[in-house]
Amino acid sequence: MTRLRLIPRSLFGRMLAIAALSTGIALLFAGITIGHVLERFVTRGLDERLDAQVAVLARAVRPDGSLDRMRAIDLPEFGEPGSDWSWQVEGPAGRFDSGTTPPPTISKPASTIPPPPPVLPRSEERPLPPGPGGQEDRQVHPGEARDQSGERLHSRSLDVTTPRGTVTITAIGPRRIVEEPLREAMIPLLGSLALLGVGLALATLVQLRFGLRPLRDLRTSLAAVRAGTERHVPDDQPGELQPLVAELNALIDQNAAGLAHARQHVANLAHGLKTPLAALSLKLAEANADADVRDMVDQIDRRVRHHLGRARADATGGARTRTPIAPAVADLIAVLRRIHADRPMTIDIAIPDDLAVAIDPQDLDEMIGNLLDNAWRHARAAVSITANSVDGTVTLEIADDGQGLDDTAMAQAVLPGRRLDERGDGHGFGLSITRELAELNGGTVTLDRSPVLGGLLVRLTLPQRG
């Protein structure tokens, strides 16, 4: 259940989410990478200034490890009172500093790989003593610290080997020299990346709209096939959809063949009943049978002729007709008021006058008649009939204020011959016949509980044309 909430159900949503996630990760990586490069570039300038002060101090170190103050020159900004630029020298002869503020304690990152040593000019009067590893042993190490006000400092340290021991030379500068230019550069950089992200998002939306258009066209083609205006889905589709279209057309042909086979059986049955019914009608007339009996035989004969007509129409490729709903419902209501005269009912009808379905009129009468008769039998005092059109289909809802059905009873109600209420003279085929006719015409029948009347709600969905 959680997976369904996290992953969008539509292809458009999934592809958009993947594109947004990948674009966000790419832009974040680009921002971090570019920011790191800019920081290294700006830090290099600060390191060069600190390395220059370290080189000057390295030339001022005597062989005994002491500092020659005459040669320990302060470069610009170093040694100024109140300045964050300072230096210190620690060795066997003691500790020397720029004399401005107490130098902070420098922390050297343990994992930092020191860069190559700077090129330090040699003194013509006194060369620096080499360390155990020669000149290559002199490497500058970066470090970080904070002053008494909490401002971040950056340092560069050099270890110089003398006969009396190692002398550590450290030059310190304010970290803001790096942070301020970096901040000024990152603001337009982040703005540019944001604009780039917006542009990529718009491009992704356009790409998805254009790329998924064949799926929308396929849906339109299937709706045309369902409505009866087209026989097959067009084969002119993108390569990825052609196998799907081929399977859909094969399924359409298979269903059409099965429907034609079923209708042929109906036609054969109707032909087989036609002659015996004619003979029975003559016998009843000769015997002066009751008018109600002859009327029932006439109804059977009309239904047989109706199915024969449908079979002939299907055999010749006849198209389904356009049948208005409102007149059919009005006629059926008038008939049911006479049939159920002992049960007066309040009927609420909300059907647009121009609403029609692509169904044979007799099929529509049979489906709505079965549903209305069931509602009339089980309602207490009110029946509601509404219809509306959505996406090429018409939904007719018939609700009553009876007791309704639970979920198990709703599933059993559409089974042929299954009667949930033994009262009355029905045979339990009304809902199953309605469902069969609806499915044969490309529709559906569903059962639910009416939120308004509280009884059973039957929802009949049929294709619409024109």
Q: Mean pLDDT score, rounded?
A: 77
What ranges have pLDDT less than 50 throughout 5 or more consecutive residues? 110-137, 416-429
Total DSSP helices: 10
Look at the helices and sheets and give the structural class.
alpha+beta
Fraction of residues in β-strands: 15-25%
Cα-atom Rg, whole angstroms?
Answer: 46 Å
In sequence order, what are the helices and strands, one letter per element?
Answer: HHEEEEEHHHHEHEEHEEHHEE
Helicity, as a percent range = 40-55%
* Broad shape: rod-shaped
Secondary structure tally: strands: 12
Distance separating the two termini? 41 Å
Order of strands, main sheet, comes to 2-1-5-4-3
Short description:
By secondary structure, the chain is α+β, with helices and mostly antiparallel strands. The chain contains ten helices and twelve strands.
Write structural notes for this entry.
Strand 3 and strand 4 form a beta hairpin. The protein has a 5-stranded antiparallel beta sheet. The chain has a 5-stranded mixed beta sheet with strand order 7-9-10-12-11. Strands 6-8 form a two-stranded antiparallel sheet. The protein has 10 helices and 12 strands. The longest helix has 49 residues, at 11-59. Helix 2 packs antiparallel against helix 3 and helix 5 (242-286) packs antiparallel against helix 6 (291-315). The chain is rod-shaped. The protein has 466 residues and is an alpha+beta fold.
